[in-house]
Amino acid sequence: MGSRTGRNGVDLWAEIVASEQQQEQPPNGQVIYRRRKPPAKTTPQDVPPSGRTSIAVGACLDHQPQVKQAKRKGRPPIPKGKVVEPPSFEKERAYFDEVDAFELMEESPSPKNYGTWVSANQNDTMEIPHLSSRLQKWLNCRRLNYSCGPASTLSKILGNSAMTLTPIGGDDFNPCLTPEKLSLKVNFPLHCVESTLKSSMVSGNILERDISESHELEDMASEDCEEIEFSVKKLSLASTSSLESHQSNFATLLAVCGQSVPSSFQDVFSKYCDLEKITKVGEGTFGEAFMVGNYVCKIVPIDGDFRVNGEVQKRSGELLEEVVLSRTLNCLRGRGGDGLNLCTAFIDTIDLRVCQGSYDPALIRAWQDWDEKHRSENDHPKEFPDKQCYVVFVLAHGGKDLESFVLLNFNEARTLLLQVTAALAVAEAAYEFEHRDLHWGNVLLSRSDSVTVEFNLEGKKMFVKTFGLLVSIIDFTLSRINTGDDILFLDLSSDPYLFKGPVGDKQSETYRKMKEVTEDCWEESFPRTNVLWLLYLVDILLLKKSFTWFLSTRLVYKAIKATSFLRSPCVTPLFSVGGRGGVWECNSKNKRDMRSLKKRLDEYQSAREAVLDPFFSDLFVDSIVCLSRAWVLGATRPGRLRNNPTGTTPARAGGDVTCCRSGQAGPAADGTCARKGVAGGARTPRALSF
Ligand SMILES: Nc1ncnc2c1ncn2[C@@H]1O[C@H](COP(=O)(O)OP(=O)(O)OP(=O)(O)O)[C@@H](O)[C@H]1O
């Protein structure tokens, strides 16, 4: 094999290694937060229990098969010794039964049935999901005189009356429907689910009572908020126990997933591939991600009373929000939305399922294979008991996360930023969406033949140059959205440790800045939080991605030049892929551009403003583009493009190959579509630079 030593007798590979080691040190002593650095495995005894406080319903922990230190991917560590116990529903039941009995006796118009809201069927103890908290939201909106469109009236918040009046066992909730049939209702809105649950779970007279109380409350809208709040508190809805609330959340979660009972892993996964072919592809604080056929299935354990990966398990209610949020974002793909705001940059949620049981042996085998190669930080899944429940997100494969992805050039960095910005802008416009946790583990990247990718912002089409890179945004756990019927958000004020990460660390600083912007009121819309994550991403590209690439690439090139083996005709083409895109030397101009972008981002209040920034201008394409990279490079890709270079093939959903005659490009400040200084145009295939 070729010599390791260069012409000057210098050991170039040693130089590369040394240089990269140097690069691992944060520049100027700045603390850089690493998402997941596999530590030496710890034993349970080493690690004090710790946990997430965010929206866990505090109670006691009885059963803990194993205790691991909480690993908050990309989030500040929890101080040792801090214990947040997961709920024990049994203990709460006794307490709340007592309280409910007292309060209902005092306040219920039907004191004979004080043990429950339901008069007709004593076995049905299901309360109406979320109602009191939704009333509270409405009150907050009134107080702030906050008109967030659809959620601003009480009748909206309670679900529309037509739905509420649906006869019991009405069309929307037919227990005879198979889960498959139900799951066809892709955009099943939450209020419909609630209404169907109401319909199916409570008796008619209670329903009537709810309706009349809603109307009473609406009449009171002009009264002093304090009085209304008092009235709301008087509703014994507010006294439902967390056990009941948990049951109703779980039932709602099942309904949203189109199920009447949980499935087994085998049932779900065998739809996509032979179970033996499953491999693990990643892991997060809460979930494990497996490649199942062409999809990635993220499995999140829920509702158990022991910790998983050092964290209190998420509750059905929390997952319900994430599930509805994921489903809502799917509408941006043109399935059921208004069509004015479209994009494919949020990961495609193919299916959502609730599963129950211990981990399938095929998953355990895949988990162990991954563990051998990557040393998992998560608990071994063989520990899960038979009764354990999970939510399974069946997702499109989004590629590699930004943390581990190697960017080839500055254009790739630019398109990454623009695709993220445009996606956020579209989702802001459609749903007042804020991601609120867009660290580099949640930006996935994949290489593709696409030349452009399409975004529709408020009815205006934008075609963004991809330079062969497509972005997918994942993980909506902390996100906030207004679905039109509900405002879904996580109250981060109950997670103080999120804001206690190291000073100077970009990610921790971003959480703190979000807190400043929102003043710790997480329900309201603050699109500025999206801009804060854009600023974070620019910093990451400047500090973590470009320098490493620049130095290592330079040295690799030195090695190529200097080493006879690497200069041999059969090896150099391997490097020409990077060479074609240009080595990202993050030269002083690139750096200056990024820094001025940062300055301007400081002034923007939303991604919608940021997408107009001149930094992105020449990334918009505004003319006929009908080609793929493979086509330009002369590859023999069958049929579709080679036979049809004239621009008549329809654009493919997902932005694979764009073929359009648009004359429209980036949005102008006045909301109209104007040409944004497209460099060199893109009228002929070869005019495109990449
Ligand atoms: N659709 C996907 N395509 C490819 N990889 C994925 C996908 N979804 C998740 N992954 C992989 O699994 C990892 C964990 O996923 P995710 O961040 O959604 O889990 P999480 O438990 O919510 O994480 P967090 O610790 O941020 O809360 C990701 O970092 C990624 O490597």
Could you characterize what this model shows?
A five-stranded antiparallel sheet has the order 1-2-3-5-4, with helices on both faces. Strands 6-7-10 form a three-stranded antiparallel sheet, with helices on one face. It is an alpha+beta fold. It is built from 21 helices and 15 strands. The two termini are 34 Å apart. It has a domain at 89-239. The radius of gyration is 27 Å and the shape is globular. Helix content is 36%, strand content 10%. Helix 1 (12-24) packs antiparallel against helix 16 and helix 3 runs antiparallel to helix 9 (225-234). It binds adenosine-5'-triphosphate. Adenosine-5'-triphosphate (ATP) is lined by residues 73-74, 281-287, 289, 296, 298, 347, 395, 397-398, 401, 441-442, 444, 474-475, 477. Residues 19-28 have a biased composition (Polar residues).
Largest sheet, described in full? 5 strands, antiparallel
Helix content range: 25-40%
Low-confidence stretches: 1-17, 22-68, 77-87, 99-240, 547-555, 563-583, 623-690
State the strand order across the main sheet.
1-2-3-5-4
Shape: globular
The separation of the N and C termini measures 34 Å
Tell me which ligands are bound.
adenosine-5'-triphosphate
